[in-house]
Amino acid sequence: MRVVILENAQRVGRWAAEYIGQLVRQKPTVVLGLATGGTPVLCYQRLIAMHREEGLSFRRVRTFNLDEYVGLPADDSNSYRSFMRQQLFDHIDIPASSTHVPDGLATDVTEHCRHYEQQIQDVGGIDLQLLGIGSDGHIAFNEPGSSLASRTRLKALAARTLQDNARFFGSLDRVPRLAITMGVGTILEARQCLLLATGENKASAVRDAIEGPLTSQITASALQLHPQATLVLDEAAAARLEQADYYREAEALQAGC
Ligand code: GLP
After folding, report:
1. Cα 3 from Cα 249, distance rounded (Å)
2. Alpha-carbon distance 89 to 85, whole Å?
3. Which of 127, 201, 251, 254 sits most deeply, having the most CB atoms within 10 A of its CB?
4. Quick check: CB of 137 below 6 Å from ligand 1?
């Protein structure tokens, strides 16, 4: 795993956007896996600025989001589809038909999940999967105990996740209890994974994911199995890493190689 430690959340967002921007320039038809939550917002803002100021085009890019709440229509202000429109899609030149987010109102959830996986296969797989991390160590909505081989499916949210996400809904009892989420196995099939983490409330999860054992209790630890996983952290999220100095040194030594 490549671990990049930067000064603050602003730098993390900028680093991720430059990385993604470079990929889009190299391969205009790139397939991006996208994430929601507060963490990637700064990255999305920078991508929007790159589109406006540097002509970065997303016209041929295809995207697949990690997850969606069950029971929320796409146009609900709290749906992840709305989040992506507000934070990114409505501000760049990507056709709506090239963006994919699971349907929180799907009547046949099993079939919908199978179809979502099929759509990913049909475009040749995900080139880069952007990820955040839950304070319980989850990626997407793969809560503790999720199989490390899991595929897109229905998942019940853990108490800590409901609590963490209540801030978006105004109160805990408004947070949907179920979500459709890509599985850990689905995520590991992306050619590259890029996980962003900022803030001290992520420091334990980040340490467990990078330096703890591979375990379904911390689904982000599955990235230890991925040959091309990069974790970009701010100082606060990196604060509990035992090997932080080594990661910094390794980055400095490998710069430009
Ligand atoms: C939700 C999302 C995850 C995200 C996590 C952390 O659980 N399903 O994909 O990584 O929130 O969100 P935040 O970046 O707001 O801390």
Report:
1. 10
2. 5
3. 127
4. no
Q: Which fold has domain 2-255?
A: Rossmann fold (3.40.50)
From start to end of the chain, where are the E strands? 2-6, 31-34, 62-65, 67-69, 99-100, 128-131, 153-156, 178-181, 192-197, 229-234
Q: pLDDT 10s digit of each residue in the chain, 257 long?
A: 999 999 999 999 999 999 999 999 999 999 999 999 999 999 999 999 999 999 999 999 999 999 999 999 999 999 999 999 999 999 999 999 999 999 999 999 999 999 999 999 999 999 999 999 999 999 999 999 999 999 999 999 999 999 999 999 999 999 999 999 999 999 999 999 999 999 999 999 999 999 999 999 999 999 999 999 999 999 999 999 999 999 999 999 988 77
DSSP states of 182-205: --HHHHHTSSEEEEEE-SGGGHHH
| 189: its two tokens | 């099939």
Query: Which position among 136, 189, 208, 234 bears the catalytic label?
Result: 136
Distance of CA 198 to the CA centre of its chain: 13
Q: If you measure from the C-alpha of residue 227 to the centroid of ligand 1, how many angstroms do you get, rounded to a whole number?
A: 23
> What is the Å distance from ligand 1's center to 79 Cα?
13
* Domain boundaries defined on the chain: 2-255
If one counts every other C-beta atom within 10 angstroms of the C-beta of residue 156, the result is 12
**Spatial strand order in the sheet of 178-181:** 67-69, 178-181, 153-156
Nearest by Cα to 63 from 76, 44, 45, 49: 44
Strand partners, 104: none
